[in-house]
Amino acid sequence: MNIFRLAADMTHLASILVLLLKIHTIKSCAGISLKTQELYAIVFVTRYLDLFSSHVSLYNTFMKMIFLASSFSILWYMRRHKIVRRSYNKDQDTFRHFVLMIPCMLLALFVHEKFNFKVVMWTFSLYLEAVAILPQLVLLQRTRNIDNLTGQYVFLLGAYRALYILNWMYRYFTEPHYIHWIVWVSGLVQTLIYADFFYYYLKSWRNNSKLELPS
Questions:
Q1: pLDDT tens string 169-204
Q2: CA proximity to 106, closest of 116, 120, 117
Q3: Confidence band (pLDDT; 50, 70, 90) for 209?
Q4: Using one digit for the tens of pLDDT, what is the confidence trace for 34-74?
Q5: Residue 51 CB neighbour total at 10 angstroms
Q6: How far is 160 from 63, CA to CA, in rounded Å?
Q7: 6 touches 118 (CB < 8 A)
């Protein structure tokens, strides 16, 4: 644990809390991609297969349970809650998200650190997380109507991964033999996907104007 990882974890947690705040208090999921939320649920399930078989720390176990529980709570709200689901932009959230899973799984089968079920699934979760935000970004480009909470959610989600890059850099210089190319490359790809959104988010924040993405 170091300050960069802690900051990244807290930023990730903050992004989820912002989204739950929007859904629970405003009773709206307008501008939120169900496709992205489904992909994140798959990411967490495949990454945390060792939840009950491998204990790292109480903090580690607690965070895993929080991410799993919050992910499925968001899915329940968007799919089952009578009021929330009516605000879902179904007609515009049409990204074929499951198509992303096929190349990620194939890549995990051939590019991994060790060929066993848990490691391949963990690797698959890294590849899938790198591209899971794409349906959300496409939806925001289509709607062109991004409220503050949705913008904050996506920004925090991207910032968490950027902070993890600082964590990896810190560990590389402070821990001997710390090299994880798969983690690093997938994390870098994920951060680069957010680059365009970061630009327009920070521009709107600086100009105190409404966030809009180019079509």
A1: 999 999 988 999 999 999 999 999 999 999 999 999
A2: 120
A3: confident
A4: 999 999 999 999 999 988 888 889 999 999 999 999 999 99
A5: 15
A6: 14
A7: no
Angular region, 2: left φ>0, alpha ψ -120 to 50, beta rest: beta
- Look up residue 127 and give its two tokens: 């590849």
Confidence of residue 155 (pLDDT cuts 50, 70, 90): very high
| pTM exceeding 0.85 | yes
**The pair of three-digit structure tokens given for residue 22, joined into one six-digit string:** 């929007």
Looking from the CA of 110 toward its CB, the CA atoms found within 13 Å total 5
DSSP of 69-137:
HHHHHHHHHHHH-TTGGGG--TTT----GGGGHHHHHHHHHHS-SS-SHHHHHHHHHHHHHHHTTHHHH
Residue type, 119: V
- Pick the closest to residue 22 from 91, 83, 68 (CA basis): 83
Q: How far is the C-alpha of 140 from the C-alpha of 111, rounded, in Å? A: 32
